[in-house]
Structures are given as structure tokens and as C-alpha cells.
Design a protein that fits this description.
Layout lengths: L5 E2 L26 E4 L2 E4 L6 H15 L5 H18 L6 H16 L3 H4 L2 H10 L1 H10 L8 E6 L1 H5 L6 H9 L3 H9 L5 H7 L3 H4 L12 H15 L14 E5 L3 H12 L4 E5 L7 H4 L8 H13 L3 E4 L9 H6 L2 E6 L5 E2 L17 H9 L9 E5 L3 H12 L4 E6 L10 H9 L3 E4 L1 E9 L2 E15 L5 E14 L2 E4 L3 E2 L2 H4 L26 E3 L2 H4 L4 H21 L6 H12 L24 H4 L12 H8 L7 E6 L1
Parallel strand pairs: 5-6, 5-8, 6-7, 8-18, 10-11, 10-16, 11-12
Antiparallel strand pairs: 1-3, 2-3, 2-19, 4-19, 9-17, 13-14, 14-15
């Protein structure tokens, strides 16, 4: 990307703008030429008229004003009137001072970020491009309107892989409009009850309210509106689009596949999901225990996907029972691959491939437990790993009757990738954590596990992940006895089983797709979720399915895929970053987010009942009132 000739953007951007990937500049009929908003301005193309850019930015700001406070509602309209007069060739020298005065008044007196953040981009344009503004006014020039892509963002929205409009649905909850709030969520997330229980909450980590006191309880509010609908009984008002003739096959009924089929259905493209398991949900069903995600919640949300027009065929393994070529002969014009990462990674430990009794991968252990089985015998168990799968394994083991459950992790708790809530609840349930320990050899007698030979570690220099690398301590070997051992150190993809002849498979068995359109090297094949990125979050899989669905529809309707300006702008803003953890807000907070009740640890290990309850209506509305509504407009020149 060319070096910008004007760049006033301030904030947490990690890379200089000339290093942003050029592919994120694809939009409409050409690259993005400029962007204004959030915290500054960047202009790459000198053909962009900064006066017109200011007009477009102010008009978007006016259109996004909620109207609650007078300074923003009235002030932004006045700013637009002045800019329109200037661009029409009827401006006067005093107009520029009036713009500054009004903008300053709005930025110090508005209630939300729409008005509070208005000034910076405008002031930067007025200062850096003063000659352009003065020339237009002095010569009475008329400024033609350019082409722009406009949007709004917020740190929480920007952090969410699916860009759910979080402030909007929280505001609706505050007004008691629960169904409206749920409809807002479903525009970008088709499984709110599921994600409202198991999301890893990147939005909350990027919540500006947390810079005052505590982040918003975004996940719990999402669950609240989903639970309200389920409690009322009737199915949601899903309206499938006008049926189209083209047929789409979706491989995998996991989160990515379900999301893709849902949004295709809303656009009229009926999808057939091919799932090799006996039920839907993928890792959401067979990898997340019932105490975190009850089956009735997941099944309800799958029924919503089906109401949107999707059909699901179970017990069909693509690549074994049917090939992609056969799907093509059956009339499927587009295929979405969402097979996830269902296989377990190796922990590179001696004896793990020996076939010992009572040795089982975490993925398989959870899948068996989800089917109501106790797949391993004994009273003591060892689990190796530090992610959420490892947490699910140790907590499931306690519920299956293992009295002594030990978790081994080669780093410290500070480096564990698992959700801190899951770590705490596992510790409450009696799981013993052993840090800075690595497995060396599985010990067995008569073909059955008896224990694990381990080695103590110490932390060295940071590795590629940014975490300090565990380094073995010589002579520190020791043995832990155990009746059963479960490695939960990662997962691997199996795209090569579905696409055995495709040139677009990486050495890691993931599918290569365009980062904006999700289209593979085979034009009619799309992919998303873990099978593209490697093991990732559930919300990331839902986001991939949603985004891919729009480009599958574009491919079916237009015969090609071309990134939209909206997607290019969203990708650019995501890379630029709008969350600044070092930002200092003018006041400290005074409130704390509510915490829903949870079952007592002694009670919850007795079975698989859901551990955590939801918010009451009073809690939800009180929490909604804490939202700072951190919207800010962003405008890009095309």
C-alpha cells in the first residue's frame, strides 16, 4: 500500500498504515482512498477532496445521532448545514470558525461518543487541509460529492468476530424491548442462547466501561434475551427469503455450518447440511458439556436455523459416503465446508500411541460423555493441557465420579489460554492444578495406564505466541500415579478428508480461502471456521458462516465474488484498532456488573445440571443502563 500523504490517526494501531495488507483495500470498483473517523484521518489518494470528506463524515455523524441530547442532535445538523453551504460555493470565511466552535461545544457536552468524538477528525481536516477549505470558500467552488462507504463501530463491536451491534441490543434491553434486542443480535449471530453461555467474551475485554469500573456483562445480556424468548414458548419470527432455485450444500452441522445455512435461508437460498454425527452442533454439542451448554438450548437454536429453510441430513460423511463430485452431479452449485477441527493434537509423549487402556484424547472423552457414557474407568485422572477443552475434561471427570482429578500444564496459570471463569470453577470443584509440568512418558502395566512420568519446567524467553517458553529442568523427573490419562493439548483439522484432491490444502490440513469472501481456489467451494483458521472460538465460527453466506449468495446470483466496500472498511478498521486500553476517561465509575447465581460446587459436581443461572429482568435492565454507547462513525472514500 502506498504511503499516505495525510495521516492524523491516533490510538493503539500496532502497524504503520503502509504495512496494512493490500487485500483489505479491495472494495467496490477500487481501493479505499481515505478513512475518517474514530480518532483521526488517513488519506492515501490525493484525488480525495478533504472538504467533501469532511462533509461525508459530518453527515454520517448526524445520521447516527440518537437524538437523546440536544447538543448532538441539533449541533450536528447545524454542522451539516454549514458544510453543505460551503460545498455549494456559498461559504464565507466565518464558516470555518463556526464549524470549530460548534464542534467544540458538541464534543464537551454530548452524552455519548457519537457527539463526544466528533471533533478530532474534523479538527484534523480543518488544520491539515486548511488551504483546500480556504480555496473552496474564497473562489466559491462547488464541491462534487464523492463515493463513500460509511459505518459505525465501537470497541466491543470491533472486537466481536461477527461485529454484533452490541450497544444497540443493550439499549433495547434497557427499554424493555427484549424481542427487538434479540432480533438485533440475530442479524449477526444466529445462536444467541449458545454464545450467551460459552462465548470467550472478546467484546468485554474491549469494553470502555471497564476503564471506569467493570466491563459490561455483554455475554449475560445476550443470554438473557435468548432465555426470555425460550421461556415464552413460541418460535421466533424468522422469515426465510423468497426461495431461489440454486442448491447449496453445507458440510458440517457445527456452528460455522449452521450459521452459513441460517443466513443463506434468510436470503432465499435453501441449504442442505450434511452431518456425519447423529445430531447437530459439532463441537458445541459434543465438545462443550451440558453443564455449560444444555442440549435443549442448542436444539432450540438449531430449530431456528431449520425454520430459516435449512435441511439437515445426519449420518452422512462427505469424502466417504459421498464425494464433492457426486454433490455436483446432484445439482449443488455451491458448497460450504465447515468441518471444524475434530481431531486431537499429539502431545509428543512416549507411549501415547501404544493403545493403552484408559488413555483417551480430550475430544473423544467429551464426545463420549456427551452421549451419556463413562468412557474411562478408575478413581484418579490426569488431564494435560491449559485450554477450555482441558477445563471441560477435568470438570466432566469430577461429574463422572473421578475423586482425584489433576491437571498438568507446562506454563503457569498466567499463561493459560482457558477462560478464567472456567479455571476458577474447576478449582472450586476440587480439581488440583499442577503448573510448570510437562509429560514425558505414559506408564502402563498389562496394557493399562498406571501413571505418567513428568518433568518440571521453568519459563524462559517468550516464544512466537508471546508467552514465555517452558524450558525443562534437568534431573527433575517424577511420576504421578493415575487410573486414566487424557491429553487435551489442541485440535487438528481434517479438510483433506473432504477435499482429498484440492490444491488449496495447507500442511496443517486447513483450507485456503480469501480472507474477505471465504471463497477457495475452486470457485464454487467456500469454507469457514476452524477448518480454515485452525482451532478458534465458537463466535469466530459463527461469524465465518455468516460472512461466507453473503458471498455464496453473491456467487450464485452474479457468478463471481467481489469484496464489498463495507467488508473492506470493516477489515481496515479492525486492523487499525479502536480499543485503547491506555485511554483515560474523565471520571471513575461507581457501579459493578451483576453476577448471576451459580450452583454450589458440592452440588454441581453431582451431575450435569447447568451451573450458571441467567439475569433477572431487573438485573438485565440495570446492567443495560451502564453502557456508555461508545459508537463512533467511520467514513471511507472509494
Amino acid at each position: 500500500m502506498q504511503q499516505p500523504w495525510l495521516n492524523t490517526w491516533e490510538g493503539p494501531t500496532a502497524e504503520p498504515v503502509d504495512q496494512w495488507p493490500a487485500t483489505w483495500q479491495k472494495a467496490g470498483q477500487g481501493p479505499l482512498k481515505a478513512v475518517a473517523g474514530w480518532n483521526g484521518v488517513v488519506i492515501w489518494d490525493s484525488a480525495v477532496n478533504p472538504v467533501d470528506l469532511a462533509r461525508a463524515y459530518l453527515e454520517k455523524t448526524r445520521d447516527e445521532s440518537c437524538g437523546v441530547c440536544t447538543p448532538c442532535r441539533v449541533g450536528t445538523d447545524q454542522l451539516c448545514r454549514i458544510m453543505e453551504r460551503i460545498c455549494d460555493g456559498r461559504g464565507s470565511p466565518g464558516d470555518l470558525e463556526r464549524l470549530k466552535e460548534l464542534a467544540e461545544m458538541i464534543t464537551v457536552s454530548s452524552r455519548c461518543d457519537i457527539g463526544l468524538s466528533l471533533g478530532k477528525p474534523l479538527f484534523d481536516l480543518l488544520e491539515a487541509c486548511a488551504d483546500d477549505f480556504n480555496r473552496v470558500i474564497e473562489q466559491g467552488l462547488k464541491v462534487p460529492r464523492g463515493r463513500y462507504q460509511a459505518g459505525v463501530t465501537a470497541p466491543c463491536v470491533n472486537a466481536c468476530p461477527s461485529n454484533v451491534d452490541i450497544p444497540a441490543y443493550i439499549e433495547a434491553i434497557g427499554w424493555g424491548k427484549y424481542q427487538e434486542a434479540l432480533e438485533i443480535v440475530r442479524r449477526d449471530c444466529p445462536m444467541p442462547g449458545t454464545i450467551g453461555r460459552v462465548c470467550v467474551r472478546p467484546c468485554e475485554s474491549n469494553c470502555r466501561r471497564g476503564l471506569m469500573d467493570e466491563p459490561m456483562a455483554i455475554k449475560h445480556l445476550k443470554r438473557f434475551v435468548a432465555d426470555q424468548e425460550m421461556a415464552r414458548g413460541p418460535q421466533p419470527p424468522v422469515k426465510p427469503g423468497q426461495p431461489q432455485e440454486a442448491k447449496v450444500a453445507v458440510i458440517g452441522a457445527g456452528p460455522a455450518g449452521l450459521s452459513c445455512a441460517y443466513y443463506l435461508g434468510l436470503m432465499g437460498h435453501r441449504a442442505t447440511i450434511l452431518e456425519k454425527q447423529e445430531g447437530p452442533g459439532g463441537m458445541a454439542a459434543y465438545g462443550i458439556p451440558n453443564y455449560r451448554l444444555p442440549f435443549d438450548v442448542l436444539n432450540y437454536e438449531v430449530s431456528v436455523v431449520q425454520k430459516a429453510g435449512a435441511k439437515i441430513r445426519y449420518g452422512v460423511e462427505v469424502g466417504k459416503d459421498i464425494s464433492l463430485e457426486q454433490l455436483g452431479r446432484q445439482g449443488y452449485q455451491a458448497i460450504f465446508v465447515g468441518v471444524g477441527a475434530p481431531e486431537a493434537s499429539s502431545m509428543r509423549c512416549q507411549g501415547e500411541d501404544a493403545g493403552y487402556e484408559c488413555f483417551m484424547t480430550g475430544v473423544e472423552f467429551l464426545a463420549q460423555a456427551a452421549r451419556g457414557r463413562r468412557p474411562l474407568k478408575g478413581r484418579s485422572m490426569l488431564v494435560i493441557g491449559g485450554g477450555n477443552v482441558a477445563m471441560d475434561c477435568v470438570r466432566t471427570a469430577r461429574r463422572l465420579g473421578f475423586d482425584q482429578v489433576n491437571l498438568l500444564y507446562r506454563r503457569t496459570e498466567a499463561e493459560m489460554p482457558a477462560d478464567p471463569v472456567e479455571i476458577t470453577e474447576a478449582q472450586e470443584e476440587g480439581v488440583q492444578f499442577h503448573y510448570l509440568v510437562a509429560p514425558l512418558e505414559i506408564l502402563a502395566a498389562d496394557g493399562k495406564v498406571t501413571g505418567l512420568k513428568c518433568q518440571r519446567m521453568e519459563l524462559g524467553e517468550p516464544d512466537a505466541s508471546g508467552r514465555r517458553r517452558p524450558v525443562p529442568i534437568e534431573g527433575s523427573e517424577f511420576v504421578i500415579e493415575a487410573d486414566a490419562i487424557i491429553p487435551a493439548v489442541g485440535q487438528v483439522c481434517v479438510v483433506d478428508c473432504v477435499l482429498p484432491e484440492s490444491p488449496g490444502i495447507t500442511p496443517w490440513k486447513t483450507l485456503v480461502v480469501d480472507e474477505l469472501t471465504f471463497q477457495s481456489q475452486d470457485a464454487h467451494i467456500f469454507g469457514g471456521g476452524d477448518c480454515v483458521t485452525g482451532p478458534d472460538t465458537l463466535i469466530a465460527a459463527l461469524a465465518a458462516g455468516k460472512k461466507a453466506a453473503h458471498y455464496i449468495a453473491q456467487y450464485l446470483e452474479q457468478g463471481r465474488c467481489h469484496p464489498t466496500a463495507a467488508d473492506a472498511l470493516a477489515a481496515l478498521v479492525r486492523q487499525m484498532g479502536v480499543w485503547d486500553p491506555g485511554e483515560r476517561l474523565p471520571v471513575k465509575g461507581w457501579s459493578h456488573k451483576p453476577h448471576p447465581p451459580v450452583l454450589d460446587p458440592a452440588e454441581r459436581v453431582q451431575g450435569f445440571d447447568e451451573v450458571e443461572a441467567g439475569f433477572s429482568p431487573a438485573q438485565a435492565r440495570d446492567e443495560a443502563a451502564r453502557c456508555l454507547r461508545c459508537y463512533r462513525p467511520v467514513v471511507a472514500a472509494l
